[in-house]
Amino acid sequence: AQTVTQSQPEMSVQEAETVTLSCTYDTSESDYYLFWYKQPPSRQMILVIRQEAYKQQNATENRFSVNFQKAAKSFSLKISDSQLGDAAMYFCASGRSQGNLIFGKGTKLSVKP
Amino acid sequence: DTAVSQTPKYLVTQMGNDKSIKCEQNLGHDTMYWYKQDSKKFLKIMFSYNNKELIINETVPNRFSPKSPDKAHLNLHINSLELGDSAVYFCASSQTGVKQYFGPGTRLTVT
User: Fold this and answer.
1) Which of A98, A105, B48, B94 has CA 20 to 30 A from B31's CA?
2) pLDDT tens for each residue of B35-51
3) Which residue, B76, B60, B44, B98, is CA-closest to A1?
4) A42–chain B nearest CA distance, Å
5) B98 neighbourhood in chain A, CB within 8 Å
6) Percentage helix, strand, coil, to 5, in chain A?
7) What letter would DSSP give residue B80?
């Protein structure tokens, strides 16, 4: 069975600073994907970044980047130059192609002005 | 154009009632899902349909019955609603590559 663990229920960052959200996972699949989703108060689930497990290169999307450590089954999200609009719940998830996603319990990120 | 839409966005009802939530996607995806997000924000898969066929049915009370009239629609019908059914229900769809597109969610409150 797949599991995803987010050990930080809450995090806080100063505006313009950098913050890293942690995620570890466990899977017996050889072909899988990892994701970070953002859920603002509007409750819409927004895909932040995606990583294919077979790719060694870490994914980046503008201010968002991941540190994917396959052997350690670790998938952390780094947010650079944090903005007030980054405040939200962040969910780490894993899944297979056309399979359902397994989510972590989320990390609530606050951004201080 | 909204990629994945759900109706209604809010649903308040009494215990014992039967209600439905509708989901439609206009992305041409083959696979659709229902997820439940509880009061602690934990998201969990309930059902998955591929081309109108049920492929995942997690441990969900049989009061919950998904129905897929065509591959663009996946509705969720709930019988005999209980207080514990109060949650946000998300519909999602995907094609290849796993990226899932989520609907806006339906907040169900059972009183």
Assistant:
1) A105
2) 999 999 999 999 888 88
3) B44
4) 8
5) 33, 35, 50, 95-99
6) 5, 50, 45
7) S
